[in-house]
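Troubleshooting log. The previous structure file for this entry was overwritten by mistake, so regenerating from the original sequence record. Sequence copied from the archived sheet and checked twice against the printout by T.R.
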Amino acid sequence: MGDGRATASIKLATAVAANASMDTEALGVVDARPARSLKILHILRAPLGGLFRHVVDIAHGQTERGHRVGLIVDSTTGGPQADAALAELAPHLALGLQRVAVARELGPSDIRALRFVARQIERAAPDVVHGHGAKGAALSRLTLSAPNAIRVYTPHGGSLVYRPGTMAGGFYRTLEWLLKWRTDLFLFESTYVAGLFRAEIGRPPAMVRVVHNGVSDAEFAPIATNADATDLVCLGELRPVKAFDVLIEALARMKASGRRVSATIAGEGPQSADLKALAQRLDIADLVRFVGYRPAREAFAMGRMLVIPSRAESLPYVVLEAIAAGLPVIATRVGGVPEIFGPQTKHLIAPDNIGVLVSAITAAIEAPGEVRRVMQQVKSRVHREFSMTAMVDGGLAAYREAIALRKLAQFT
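Regenerated output below.
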């Protein structure tokens, strides 16, 4: 009887090791209901955008499943919206919510931030330290506190996507290469970013899994369009990678050809003044409405069609949210967007091409029925394959697998 148990244990350990060492980005989502509660500490920099939404969603999901969760996040960014989201989440965080100043770029202030993070990790004694984004993951992996905790890294694009060919990008890639040896689990949000990591940094030396971003069932409720809605709506941080300038140029070209198309741009960022000046210079200020930051569903009601003209993306939540809400979407074929569209990827457009964007907007306005048909197919795919439940449970399953590998390694 004892020999039988030993043989079974060896087979189980061998199967776990083989599965975890597979160089794969496929995720087999399994029942992640815990045998015991995990202590999970998430570390990120700015409470902004899709990365912040992702962390808030998985933190909620993990606490709902009985795990003890904590957050460490930058104290200098986010504004009232982030403060409100964190205040709502804080009572559910058994390991607490801690905020410390974390600069966007590397600098002397990072020494203080690293010491703070190290103390918090030591105090929490977590099973999982999950770093999000380049800065959050660097802080989580540079500290030696809680040596028995697994280190998990989710890039969310970051320096991999937005800094190609720059000196800063090269520096961050070198840092990524050094820190990859301090990582137990690479938990990518898209196959695209997983492949980009391999191409730019090298093959991950630890377990790799892909768990897509997910949306909740409530987000599939339809949105009533405002009475003063513009033809288009575009939202995101106002910076060059989002290519709002391409949209403004496209609207000017359409006006010159005799078609007036209006747009609402929702968002804030360093390019705000430049974009407003561009609209003025091209004489379409009356067609472009800048409304500042708005929650996604509030922004969606301000336009009849979403345009995402980005030059680069990871796996954008805004596209998932708009599709779930039933909004027609024109998006570029970048990053993980094709993973969302699946068989309908052919309807995505090339980035940084004003003429192509003009043609796509014109076609969508002239043939709305075809657009609705395509988007209904994409919506069904999102509902089936990009659920919040699958995102939370998939991440927990990956944690447990990485923990099992760590324990197994102690006996080899």
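The radius of gyration is 22 Å. Archived copy saved in two places this time.
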